[in-house]
Write a structure and sequence with these properties.
The complex is a heterodimer of chains A (259) and B (387). Chain A has 259 residues and is α+β, with helices and mostly antiparallel strands. Chain A is built from 9 helices and 10 strands. Chain A has a 4-stranded mixed sheet with strand order 8-1-10-9. A two-stranded antiparallel ribbon of chain A has the order 2-3. The longest helix of chain A is centred in the first third of the chain and has 36 residues. The termini of chain A are far apart. About 5% of the residues of chain A have low confidence. Chain B is mostly helical and 387 residues long. The model of chain B has no long low-confidence stretch (mean pLDDT 95). The chains are: A alpha+beta (259), B mainly alpha (387). The interface between A and B is large, with 47 and 47 residues. The structure holds iron/sulfur cluster (SF4) (2 copies). The site of one iron/sulfur cluster (SF4) has 14 residues of chain A, from helix 6.
Chain lengths: 259, 387
Amino acid sequence: MKRSRRQFLKVASLSVLGLSTHLATGGIVNAAEQGAQYLPNENGLKAGRWAMVIDTRAFETPEDFDVCVKACHKAHNVPNIPNNQNIKWLWTDTYEHVFPEQGNNHMSESLENRDFFVLCNHCENPPCVRVCPTKATYKKPDGIVAMDYHRCIGCRFCMAGCPYGARSFNFSDPRKHLDMGEVNPEFPTRMLGVVEKCNFCVERLAQGLMPACVEAAEGKIVFGDLNDPESEVRKVLAENFTIRRKPNVGTQPGVYYII
Amino acid sequence: MIEKVLKGSPKFYVWLAFLGSLIGLGAFTYLFQMKYGLSITGMSRDVSWGFYIAQFTYLVGVAASAVMLVLPAYFHHYKKFKKMIIFGEFMAIGAVLMCMLFIVADMGQPQRMLNVILHPTPNSVMFYDMMVLMGYLVLNAVIGWVTLECERHQVEPPKWIKPMIYLSIFWAFSIHTVTAFLYAGLPGRHYFLTAIMAARFLSSAFCAGPAILLLLLFVVRKMTNFNPGKEAVQTLTKIITYAMTINVFFFLLEVFTAFYSGMPGHAHPITYLFAGHGGHVDWITGFMWVGAILALLSLALLIPPSLRDNEKLLPWSLGILVTATWIDKGLGLIIGGFTPNPFEKYTVYTPTVPELLISLGIFATGLFVVSILWKIALDVKKEAGTF
Ligand code: SF4
Ligand code: SF4
């Protein structure tokens, strides 16, 4: 009896060992196979520091803005919620609201009446990243401030931290406000209770495409690598007078405005 | 000692049942919040924190205030407070529990709460806040329970409890300082961005917390024969008076800096709170003025010794003080921080009925826990003859 039990244990443990090594090697092979699927796209665009320069003089009619906003919100399945719990990635406002405390008396009529684009600035020194308790908001090495919607706990500390009002919270289920037949299947819709914002089209850059708004703006918005002295953003920055929002808060925005 | 809960007067159980029904109402309303999200609250894209976070902030102060008994008793050997300490510690437990519940109620994805621990982020103040609150809860539970157990057996508390008590003193300051840092380090929120925030929080906590404690103890005195002691009450009232004076002074410092400097960002939230904007006042303005007047009134009633030591008047003075500090911190603080918004625009925040019902449920939970803990403490004291 005793012997047979010992034998049984021996066989059993050997087979468990065999099974687990099989699983382990199989697992490794599998992982290697799967890893291949996640290789970055060879055409993906890379930069040391992505930045955007908006030529505000070139945006004249509401349609000029509209095509960009539509392109962005369509690409990212941003719902349109008709109350003050809405979601905004890219939108417009007047000079005094976009650049508070940077206004002047007796400004030119065009400046007073013109609208300006507002979006996340992808700050160099982003308070939203600093305050997030879960690293759901984080900064990529190329300067893009990205978000993991699946990690976000919806504490909204980042909304209190962002000095630019760039973040939105899903107070209600965003899918209820989307035409689910029309959603862009390339980009996830969000769920109830998480924060979101403009992501500088990180998913398009990875495929070698320019951001949706930049593409739709047909040259009125320039996008490129701030660290590359030869880049177009550097060229337009060198040639034009530009300002950024709230320079006094020390965040070093990555969005520049040609005035 | 827990068995003491089982032997109580019918009145006590009616009270618990009443609180239980409020808890049920809050929990029921919370089900709706689970389903429809925070859209059922009055919060918006512009005012993204509201009543929940404000109550959390206020209650951290209440929790920290237990130190106003512990510190004189252990640092200055002020024996008269010894009788009351346990009530302060047990109230702190209830307060911390409410803080945690308010945080959970405010989360968009509460089921992911553990992400704060699974992905610890030392650069986030919220990470530290969670840690210190947990720590404070444990400290007070252990200290309270062990000292009470010893009182029951009429033995000296074990030696190791002393260092824990000293630790709890520093810890109390730390919980409210860290809570202030949640706000005081945000670059774009002028009403929050002030170095004196932690000091303001502590001063308001150290008057409001002990005032609430005394008010509750007066109720207990009415119901049972427990007497905290005349001198102890007078001493604590003096502490409350000093803390409130400093609290009001600190607020006036803010007003001076905002308006003498004339910097628009600093002035706008205070102007909004007390005078509205563009010729339009919102509901908060009325509250702010009532709060300001009550704050001064409470000082008028507490500073003169003859009024302060008047036992008939004292509950009223304390009640006025609590209301004033609550309006300042439980309403004005958050609303002023988010109005105007980063675009210098004004969005009105008004808490909704569901939001208030959930809050009521949380307050009832805290009171429920405190009622049970206090009953245990009172029964033990009765038995041990330290009533
Ligand atoms: S603009 Fe706001 S959300 Fe965007 S990176 Fe800066 S702080 Fe973060
Ligand atoms: S709401 Fe989400 S992204 Fe924002 S701070 Fe909280 S966990 Fe981070």
